[in-house]
Amino acid sequence: MSRPSPVTTGRYAPPAPVRELTATSADGSPIHVEVHGPEGAPAVVLAHGWTCSTAFWAAQIRELASDHRVIAYDQRGHGRTPASPACSTDALADDLEAVLTATLAPGERAVMAGHSMGGMTVMAASTRPAFREHAAAVLLCSTGSTRLVPESTVLPLRPGRVRTWITGHILGSRAPLGPVTPAARRILKYATMGPTSAPDMVEACARIVHACPRTVRHAWSHVLATLDLDAGVRELTVPTEIVAGTADRLTPPVHARALAAALPDCRGLTELPGVGHMTPVEAPDLVTTRIRDLVTAHVSAPQPPVPAEESA
């Protein structure tokens, strides 16, 4: 069965990168990386979430690349990065370190933005040398550090062992998602997006999520189910902002509030009424503005150009 491709028109159509490269992670895994915007401009690094790809950040890339160097990469098994038997938060941190080392000059600082599992990647990497060298500030979108399955409200049941057990089996299902049909769009919208999400938002997200191989979706679901990154949150010492949707069923606002209380330097929590889990798609202008403001506040003047690398 062929996998759906991203949308090709509108603000959620992925723009063509200036260049592409392959970063090599600590275990030798190749990581697909895209670079957008002018060399030497202030840098932004984007880490997408579970079942997504670089296409998820299309709206942010399109706006920021006019005057920022935007670096986006595919997590293991997602998009154009091959799957790997190593599925863990340590592997996520290794991969982010590899991307930073491959794309940023020594000492160059960047704003890191992570959505969902991408935010967890940032938390997992908070003590890593490359992260501490390059991270100027962080934006966490729709994410959490622990208890993801017990706190999920995808099922309209009372909290407790029964809801946790059923939710875990649903999120960890090996079942194929199949083609993007009207019924599939309705299910995805209910589970991951706010009730007023526009059809173009739903279509863009459905195509991205349905393109994720079911084996990859299943493997990473187990990592998320046992997640415990509270220690990484306490080590995330750079200025950090949080964006969350009040209608998020996958990572309800309780997670964002816990992060805001635990972070050493939380610069603000924005809760968006009626918005679901897919904040960069559902509230693209606000997320882009938050990233741009963090760059203005915490990244110095334009950096020297990074030497060009061979395209992958």
Automatic annotation (TrEMBL):
One of its GO terms (molecular function) is hydrolase activity. Gene3D superfamilies: alpha/beta hydrolase. InterPro entries: AB_hydrolase, AB_hydrolase_1, AB_hydrolase_fold. The keyword Hydrolase applies. Keywords: Hydrolase. It holds the Pfam family Abhydrolase_6. The keyword Membrane does not apply. Residues 44-287 form the AB hydrolase-1 domain. This is Alpha/beta hydrolase.
